[in-house]
Specification:
One of its GO terms (biological process) is L-arabinose metabolic process. Pathway: Glycan metabolism; L-arabinan degradation. Keywords: Glycoprotein, Hydrolase, Signal. With about 700 residues, the chain is of the alpha/beta class. It contains ten helices and 34 strands. Among the domains are: about 5-30 and about 540-660, Golgi alpha-mannosidase II (Immunoglobulin-like, Sandwich), CATH 2.60.40; about 75-215, Galactose-binding lectin (Jelly Rolls). Strands 2, 13, 16, 17, 18, 19, 20, 21 and 22 form a nine-stranded parallel sheet that branches. A hairpin with a 5-residue loop joins strand 8 (about 145-150) and strand 9 (about 155-165). Helix 9 runs parallel beside helix 10. The model is unreliable at about 1-15 and about 665-690 (pLDDT under 50). The structure holds 2-acetamido-2-deoxy-beta-D-glucopyranose (9 copies). One 2-acetamido-2-deoxy-beta-D-glucopyranose (NAG) binds next to loops.
C-alpha cells in the first residue's frame, strides 16, 4: 500500500466538519496496477428469455418440436372455421430433425379454413415489414392468406396473399412472404392467421410445418434479436457469457446443450429439451450467439459441456474424450480458419471470418449438480483433461474453472481454482451479504470472473426459495453496487462481472429477479433498478485501479477509484452509500492526486427519491423509481471535489466531463455517445487479461 498524504485536510474542514475525505493517489495500485473489470451478463434461455424473448421469432411452437421431457402438441394454435388441427408423424417429414407436423383438415362443407398462432402470449403488430415463412405438404390450387389480426376483435391489421406452390402434394414446399400491416394494433393481443380455401385442396387437408414470422430485428440480422429487448442490453455491456448456465448442462447427459444441434438451417435443428420447463427451438443457436456478440461489439465467454448434467449424470474418465472432442470442434467452429474442418462449416453458414475467442469455461457450477461425486470428477479429471486438451491446441485461450475459491460441494471438499485457470463465482445474495462481500477478493490470488451475480433475497429472509423478491429492488441494487465496487477495486483479479439471469418474459417465469422484464407488448419492456446502476458503472470504465484512502474506512460509504487509459487518463471515483445512520446526506470530498483546482468532473448519481429500500420498477405501472442526476462540479482551490450523497445512493465522479449523462434508456441513442469510448469498440480493450 502506498502512503497518502492528506494535502486537503484543512480545506475539507472548512467545507464540512463531517465530510468523509477520500484521497486517490495517481500511481501504485494493485500488484500489476492494471486491470479492468468488464460489465456484462449471462444469457441462457430461462423462462422464455430466448424463445419468446430476445430471439425475435413471433410464432410459438413453430415446428412442433418435442423431446422425451416435453411432448409434441399444437400448443399456441387455434383453428379457424372449424378446421381440425392434429399432429402427424408423416412418413416423409419436413426433415429428420422435424418429424412432427400439423395437419389442418377442413370440416364437411369446406370453406376457407386455417389456423391462428397467438405467439408468445401475443404479438406486437406495427406498420413495419414482417417476414413470414411456412412449409406445406399436400396438393393445393389457390392462394393462402397470411394475416396479423386481433385476438379480441374482428380487426385485421395487415394481410397478404401467398400463391400456392403445392402443385402435386408429393413434397414439402416452402412459402415465404412479406407482410406490412396498414395500421398499428392497439395492444399486443394479436395472432398470425394462415388460411386456405379447402375447395382447392383435393384431399381436404394440408400439412404445415415450420411456421415462422419475424419482425425487423436488431441490426437487421436474419433470424436475429428482438429490437427493443436487445437495446436494453446493448451499449453498456462489454462481455456476454453463454449459452448457460444450467442450460449448458441439460437435464441428462443425453440432452445437454449440444452445439452441433444448434447450427445450420433452422429446419435441420431438432430443438432442445430446456432445463427451465419448456421445449426450446434452438433458433438462438451457437452462431446466433456469436453474431449477437459481434453485433454488440463485445467479447464473450463460451461455456462448453463438460460431462455433468443436472440430474447428476457424470461422464466417467474413459468416456470423456467424446466431449473433449466436441469442445475442440466447437472452438474450431468459432475461431478456426475458414479452411479448417469446422471453420469451413462456419464459412458455409455465411461467416467465413473467425470470431475472436479467448475465454472458454469448462462446464457450469460443477460443485453443485452432481454433489461431491460431480465435483470430485471435475477437479480430478474432467477439468484437467479439458484444460490440457484445449491449451494444447490453443495455448492462448484462457480457461475458466466453473467453481470459485469460495465454493465447495460439501464441507471439507474445498478445491479452489488454480492458476492459470480463472475461477467463476456466483453470488445470489441478500443485499447485506453483498455489502459484507465488499472485500471478498482483496486477498485473492487467483483470477476470477463473477459469472452470475444479483441481489435476490431480502435481508434476513428465510432461504433460497422462500424470499426471492418479485423484482430487483432498490436496496438490493445498492448492495450490488457495493459488491461491484469491491470487484472493480480488485480489477487485476476480477476480470468481469455478469448480471444473471438477464431477461424475463412476464407471461411465463419463475425466477423473478432479472435485469430487464418484457412481454409481447413492448410497452412492458422495463429496465429494473439494477439496470440503472450496471449501466452507470459500465459506462464509466477504468483500466487501472488506484490506491484510495480515507480515515473513515468503509461503511456506510463504500468506494473505489481508478483511471481510464482509454479516455485520456480520466480519473474515476465510484461510491455507494448503504444504510447511513445520520439523517443528513453523507458529505464527501474526493481528492485525486495531481488534479488541479478548477478541474471539472461529472457527478453522475442514482438515488431513490423517497429513500424507499423496497421500491422497484414494475412493468405494469411503468414508473421508474430511480432518479438520475448528472451535474458537472469543479475542484476547489485545493483540487478537491466536494459533494454529498443521500442514504442508499450510488454515484460516479469522472473527470472525463464528456461522459455526462451516461444513462439513456431510449437505447440506441446512447451507444457511441459521449463517455462511451471505452465500450463497444471492436477488438479487445486492454485490461481484460491482466496476468497476476
Ligand atoms: C488491490 O487494491 C485493493 C483496493 O485498493 C486492495 O483491497 C487490495 O488489497 C489490493 N491488492 C493488492 C495485491 O495490492
Ligand atoms: C391479452 O394478452 C395477455 C397476455 O397473454 C393476457 O394476459 C390477457 O388476458 C389478454 N387479454 C384478453 C382480453 O384476452
Ligand atoms: C386469444 O384468445 C384465446 C381464446 O379466447 C385465449 O385463450 C388466449 O389467451 C388469447 N391470447 C391472447 C394473446 O390474447
Ligand atoms: C420457469 O423457470 C422455472 C425455474 O426457475 C421453472 O421451474 C418453471 O417451470 C419455468 N416456468 C415456465 C412456465 O416455463
Ligand atoms: C451418462 O451418465 C451415466 C450416469 O448417469 C453414465 O453411466 C454414462 O456413462 C454417461 N454417459 C456419457 C456418454 O457420459
Ligand atoms: C487480507 O489480508 C490482510 C493481511 O493478512 C488481513 O489483514 C485482512 O483482514 C485480509 N482481508 C480479508 C478480506 O480477508
Ligand atoms: C440495512 O437496512 C435494512 C433495512 O432496514 C436492514 O434490513 C439491513 O439489515 C441493514 N443492513 C445493515 C448492514 O445495516
Ligand atoms: C439479521 O440476521 C443477522 C444474522 O442472523 C442478525 O445478526 C441481525 O441482527 C438480523 N437483523 C435484523 C434486522 O433482524
Ligand atoms: C438508510 O436506509 C436504510 C434502509 O432503509 C435504513 O435502515 C436506515 O435507517 C436509513 N438511514 C437513515 C439515516 O435514514
Amino acid at each position: 500500500m502506498v502512503a497518502i498524504k492528506y494535502a486537503f485536510a484543512a480545506a475539507a474542514c472548512v467545507a464540512s466538519t463531517a465530510a468523509i475525505e477520500v484521497s486517490v493517489s495517481s500511481s501504485g495500485g494493485n500488484a500489476t496496477g492494471y486491470g479492468q473489470t468488464r460489465y456484462g451478463f449471462l444469457h441462457e434461455d430461462i423462462n422464455n428469455s430466448g424463445d419468446g424473448g430476445i430471439y425475435a421469432e413471433l410464432v410459438r411452437n413453430r415446428a412442433f418440436q418435442y423431446s422425451r421431457k416435453y411432448p409434441v402438441s399444437t400448443d399456441g394454435y387455434y383453428s379457424i372455421n372449424g378446421a381440425k388441427l392434429s399432429i402427424q408423424m408423416l412418413d416423409e417429414p419436413l426433415s429428420e430433425a422435424l418429424p412432427a407436423s400439423m395437419r389442418v383438415k377442413a370440416p364437411k362443407g369446406g370453406g376457407v379454413v386455417g389456423f391462428e398462432n397467438e405467439g408468445y402470449w401475443g404479438m406486437d403488430v406495427k406498420q413495419q415489414p414482417y417476414s413470414g415463412t411456412f412449409w406445406v405438404k399436400g396438393e393445393y390450387h389457390g392462394h393462402f392468406t397470411a394475416s396479423l389480426q386481433s385476438n379480441l376483435t374482428d380487426a385485421v391489421f395487415g394481410s397478404t396473399k401467398v400463391k400456392s406452390k403445392c402443385k402435386t402434394g408429393d413434397e414439402w414446399v416452402e412459402h415465404t412472404y412479406e407482410l406490412v400491416p396498414t395500421k398499428d394494433a392497439p395492444n399486443s393481443n394479436n395472432t398470425l392467421a394462415i388460411t386456405f380455401d379447402a375447395a382447392g385442396a383435393p384431399s381436404g387437408h394440408l400439412d404445415f410445418n415450420f411456421i415462422s414470422l419475424f419482425p425487423p430485428t436488431f441490426k437487421d440480422r436474419k433470424n436475429g434479436l428482438r429490437v427493443d429487448v436487445a437495446e436494453t442490453l446493448y451499449g453498456w455491456s462489454s462481455v456476454i457469457r453463454f449459452p448457460g448456465g444450467n442450460m449448458l448442462e441439460g437435464n441428462t447427459n443425453r440432452s445437454y446443450w449440444n452445439w452441433k444441434d444448434s447450427i445450420g438451417p433452422l429446419i435441420e435443428r431438432p430443438g432442445f429439451a430446456g432445463v427451465w420447463g419448456y421445449q426450446q427451438t434452438h433458433g438462438l443457436g451457437l452462431l446466433e450467439y456469436l453474431e449477437w456478440a459481434e453485433d454488440f461489439e463485445v467479447e464473450f465467454v463460451l461455456a462448453v459441456y463438460a460431462g455433468l448434467s443436472l440430474n447428476g449424470d457424470i461422464t466417467p474418465e474413459d468416456k470423456l474424450q467424446r466431449f473433449i472432442d466436441e469442445a475442440l470442434e466447437e472452438i474450431e467452429f468459432v475461431r478456426g480458419p475458414a479452411d479448417s474442418t469446422w471453420g469451413s462449416r462456419r464459412a458455409e453458414l455465411g461467416h467465413p471470418e473467425p470470431f475472436t475467442l479467448e475465454y472458454v469455461e469448462v462446464g457450469n457450477e460443477d460443485w453443485l449438480a452432481g454433489g461431491d461425486k460431480g465435483w470430485n470428477a471435475y477437479f480430478r479429471y474432467r477439468f484437467p483433461l479439458f484444460q490440457q486438451a484445449i491449451n494444447e491446441v490453443y495455448p492462448d485461450i484462457e480457461i475458466l474453472y466453473s467453481g470459485s475459491a469460495y465454493d465447495t460441494s460439501s464441507p471439507g471438499n474445498y478445491h479452489p481454482p488454480q492458476n492459470p485457470a480463472i475461477g467463476d463465482y456466483h453470488p445470489y445474495r441478500e443485499p447485506d451479504d453483498l455489502v459484507d462481500e465488499f472485500d471478498l477478493f482483496d486477498n485473492q490470488t487467483v483470477r476470477h470472473i463473477v459469472g452470475e451475480v444479483a441481489a435476490t433475497f431480502v435481508n434476513n429472509g428465510t432461504g433460497f426459495d422462500g424470499d426471492l423478491h418479485p423484482f430487483p429492488w432498490w436496496i438490493g441494487t445498492v448492495g450490488e453496487a457495493v459488491s461491484m465496487i469491491g470487484y472493480e477495486r480488485n480489477a487485476d483479479r476480477v476480470l468481469g462481472t455478469f448480471y444473471a439471469p438477464v431477461l424475463r418474459n412476464m407471461n411465463r417465469w419463475q425466477w423473478s429477479i432479472t435485469l430487464v422484464q418484457f412481454a409481447a407488448d413492448p410497452a412492458l419492456t422495463t429496465r429494473s433498478t439494477s439496470w440503472y446502476v450496471w449501466d452507470l458503472f459500465a459506462l464509466h470504465p477504468i483500466t487501472h485501479v488506484l490506491p484510495v484512502e480515507s480515515p473513515a474506512g468503509y461503511g456506510p460509504l463504500y468506494y473505489g477509484a481508478g483511471t481510464d487509459e482509454e479516455r485520456d487518463g480520466a480519473m474515476v471515483w465510484k461510491g455507494a452509500v448503504y444504510n447511513s445512520t445520520n439523517k443528513a446526506d453523507v458529505p464527501i470530498s474526493v481528492a485525486f492526486d495531481g488534479v488541479k483546482a478548477g478541474t471539472k468532473a461529472v457527478l453522475d448519481m442514482r438515488t431513490q427519491a423517497e429513500g424507499n429500500p423496497w421500491a422497484y420498477n414494475d412493468p405494469f405501472t411503468g414508473v421508474n423509481v430511480v432518479s438520475t442526476t448528472t451535474e458537472v462540479i469543479t475542484a476547489n482551490a485545493d483540487g478537491v471535489f466536494e459533494f454529498s450523497m443521500p442514504n442508499l445512493s450510488v454515484a460516479v465522479l469522472d473527470t472525463d466531463v464528456s461522459s455526462a449523462g451516461s444513462s439513456s434508456p431510449s437505447g440506441g441513442k446512447k451507444h457511441g455517445g459521449p463517455g462511451h469510448k471505452g465500450h463497444g469498440r471492436p477488438g479487445k480493450p486492454p485490461g481484460f487479461r491482466p496476468k497476476l
